[in-house]
Design a protein that fits this description.
By secondary structure, this protein is an alpha/beta fold. It folds into 4 domains: 8-106, 2-Layer Sandwich (Beta-Lactamase), CATH 3.30.450; 112-185, Helix Hairpins, CATH 1.10.287; 195-351, 2-Layer Sandwich (Heat Shock Protein 90); 373-491, Rossmann fold (3-Layer(aba) Sandwich). Helices cover 40% and strands 23% of the residues. It contains 14 helices and 17 strands. It has a 5-stranded antiparallel beta sheet with strand order 2-1-5-4-3, sandwiched between helices. Strands 7-9-10-12-11 form a 5-stranded mixed beta sheet, with helices on one face. The longest helix has 47 residues, at 108-154.
């Protein structure tokens, strides 16, 4: 019976020397019977438990009681596994303990699932917290960036204040990027517009920028073995993924220098590592490898946790790899890490698409303004004022309201007064979506742009499906607002 059970059976003498093991034991541990018979069961110790656990185990067994618990042991090949053990003492006719019988079940898979669940719950909890503050924080940043944009438009480039304003704007955008990073690792970033993105140019561009910022002690070696490949993503996601991985590698080599090797290869459909995610077509494999000190298994188990870092305080936020993890999974890919004493390698596999790449608009000039009438609805006074000033400078006739019910009353009184409505999603009494539905009931032809600092209920796809003409993510720059207003009005000219 015990020869055929799936549970590991071990019989030892009173000193813990092994006298019998069943086939399940040899299958789980990798040891043959001949290799363990006569040896002490200590050969399985992993070093993961402190001495107190073993002292408690032997105290329990020597008094004749059954010991039950969870053990992390080491296989013959050095890998760890977790098992749930029940160890019972065996007495002879005189009542002396002569043997111990251990019945053990390998629960490594269950433990892995538990860890994944705990990680998911942790990411969800922090993501919920991040989402809760994102809306208010983005409104604050919107006012900072908005008023700065207006001041830049009103200042001459050679004036003393112009450079200071540019630095304020740059800091505001960096803060907005940090909010996006926090939301990205929790996979709650709303409204990322996915388009076919050429990976090779972005990779080359990122490495070029990185080279300028790294010390001469860091050598960058690149092996781009793919002439072209496109993935469905937000271009900012790809840039951020590359830069975060490379920055992490640089920090590992900061003290003594080293070599940063970046490799891009093509993967055939459904073959080799990552076959599960590439079952529907070919993919790419990006490897970022450094020669810095490696990571222990304990650290590797935690590197994708938000806010976990081995760096000194002030040198890292602990978000970089969490952000990469969130981006990769958002793009339908996978990320793995391999590390030893003097090497760490991150491998990312992503599915590619066979679609033409959409050219990105890099024109920094403000688009033409207009004379149309625009209604801005937002409960934040600073946001209303910045949007009003931005659009007024471009020639638009702008009306603002902090109450969606008041805005709706304006439209009811003068149905033909407005050519466009810009509404915030998160407002007291009525959400932007609810206001949108009421507006479309009154005037189905009136275009509405929705804005959000963060909303679990709203992304670009759902906003368009509900009838909005566009979704803007706060904080909104002057350029982005002007461009969106002009595009929507041109696509929906007033009657």
């Amino acid at each position: 019976m015990i020869e055929h059970t799936s549970e590991s059976i071990v019989i030892t003498d009173a000193a813990g020397n092994i006298e019998y093991v069943n086939p399940a034991f040899t299958r789980i541990t990798g040891y043959s019977r001949d290799e363990v018979i006569g040896r002490n069961q200590r050969l399985l110790k992993s070093g993961e438990h402190d001495q107190a656990l073993y002292e408690e185990m032997w105290t329990t067994l020597k008094r004749g009681a059954v010991w039950e618990g969870r053990l992390i042991n080491r296989r013959k090949d050095g890998s760890f596994y977790t098992e749930r053990a029940s160890i019972s003492p065996v007495r002879d006719a005189a009542g002396t303990i002569t043997h111990f019988v251990a019945v053990k079940r390998d629960i490594s898979h269950e433990v892995a699932l538990e860890i994944q669940l705990q990680q998911a719950q942790k990411m969800q909890a922090i993501g919920t917290l991040a989402g809760g503050i994102a809306h208010d924080f983005n409104n604050i940043l919107g006012a900072i960036i908005g008023f700065t944009d207006i001041s830049l438009m009103q200042s001459k480039p050679d004036s003393p204040i112009y450079k200071n304003l540019r630095n304020i704007r740059k800091a505001g955008l960096r803060a907005a990027d940090l909010v996006r990073q926090i939301l990205t690792f929790s996979r709650q970033a709303a409204g990322n517009r996915k388009i076919p993105v050429a990976v090779v140019p972005l990779l080359k561009e990122s490495l070029k920028l990185l080279r300028a910022s790294l010390p001469a002690t860091i050598e960058i070696v690149r092996h781009i073995n793919v002439p072209e490949a496109s993935v469905l993503a937000d271009p900012a996601q790809i840039r951020q993924m590359i830069m975060n991985l490379c920055t992490n590698s640089f920090q590992a080599m900061r003290e003594h220098g080293g070599v940063l090797t970046v490799t891009l290869d093509k993967l055939p459909a459904g073959q080799g590592p990552g076959a599960a995610i590439l079952a529907g077509g070919p993919g790419i494999e990006l490897k970022v490898e450094d020669t810095g000190p490696g990571m222990s298994p304990k650290i590797m188990d935690r590197i994708f946790e938000p806010f976990f870092t081995t760096k000194e305080p002030g040198l890292a936020t602990g978000l970089g790899l969490s952000v990469v993890h969130g981006i990769v999974h958002d793009l339908g890919g996978e990320i793995t890490v391999d590390s030893d004493e003097n090497r760490t390698c991150f491998t990312i596999r992503l599915p590619v698409i066979e679609k033409p790449v959409v050219a990105q608009n890099t024109d920094e000039d403000l688009p033409p303004g207009g004379s149309e009438s625009v209604l801005i609805v937002d409960d934040e006074q600073a946001i209303r004022e910045t949007c009003r000033m931005m659009l007024s400078q471009l020639g638009y006739s702008v009306t603002t309201s902090g109450d969606p019910r008041e805005a709706l009353a304006m439209i009811k009184r003068q149905k033909d007064r407005f050519d466009l409505v810009i509404a915030d999603q998160t407002m007291p009494e009525m959400t932007g979506l609810e206001l949108l539905h009421e507006i479309l009931r009154l005037r189905p032809d009136l275009p509405v742009i929705l804005c959000t600092g963060f909303s679990e209920q709203l992304n670009e796809e759902s906003a368009l499906r509900e009838g909005a003409r566009q979704l803007l993510l706060k904080p909104v720059t002057c350029m982005r607002l002007a461009e969106s207003v002009r595009n929507v009005l041109d696509a929906n000219p007033p009657a």
